[in-house]
Amino acid sequence: MPTDDDLNVVASRHASGAHALGGYVREAGGGTVGDYDMRASAAYIRNPVGSPQLRGLQRRELAVPLLGATKAPVAAPAPAALEESGATAAPKAILYGFINTIVVTPVMIGFCAIIFRHEAFHRDPTVYAQLVKLCLFSSAVHQAVFTATSSLPFAIGQVQDAGLIFLSKMACDLANEMEHEPPEALLSTVLVTLSASTALLGLALVITGKLQLAALVQYLPLPVVGGYLAFIGLYCLEAGLSLMTGLEVEI
Asked: What is the model's pTM?
């Protein structure tokens, strides 16, 4: 059985540790860190390590914060400080939309040239002009939906070039298969096919996000993703050279 001198030695060691942390800190329920050290030292000597008595003392003491909670609540920032006023936000939104329109318009014209690069779509200038207008209209619809439904108040987004390869391949294959069909039938078939394919892809992306399956993309090998992105750049380069020279360019 330990003597009182043994308890005093152990208690003094714990108390010195409390002094090193900044002295005695009064707890919310009364008492000091030194008092807790004295009680913990006595419980440690009288009871073996891991005993229910020592664990109960530790749980009771550790549940009490060393520093008392502040009485005065912290004032939340005013909503006006976090949000811009309508007089300031509206001109900025108009300016950003105007800049986005200037940047995206030639890009969408180039996308139209890439998607409808088959010669069947360029025989009639009026038909190709309608296709360009449809691409611009689809871009406007995309931006409107993106801005209206995005959780970001500053959302600005447009059509990506990742799907150009597939859209162009489908349009060219349909043009080759319907070579002897009337131009109206070819145009309507191609537009319906591309629209339906794009809608199905969007639905698949929404389902993937709702089911939180985006992590499955990590299982794709990095060389596969890198090669696909590199081929997109090569495909756009070929289409750009064809658009500038008026010739069929294949690298």
From this structure: 0.59
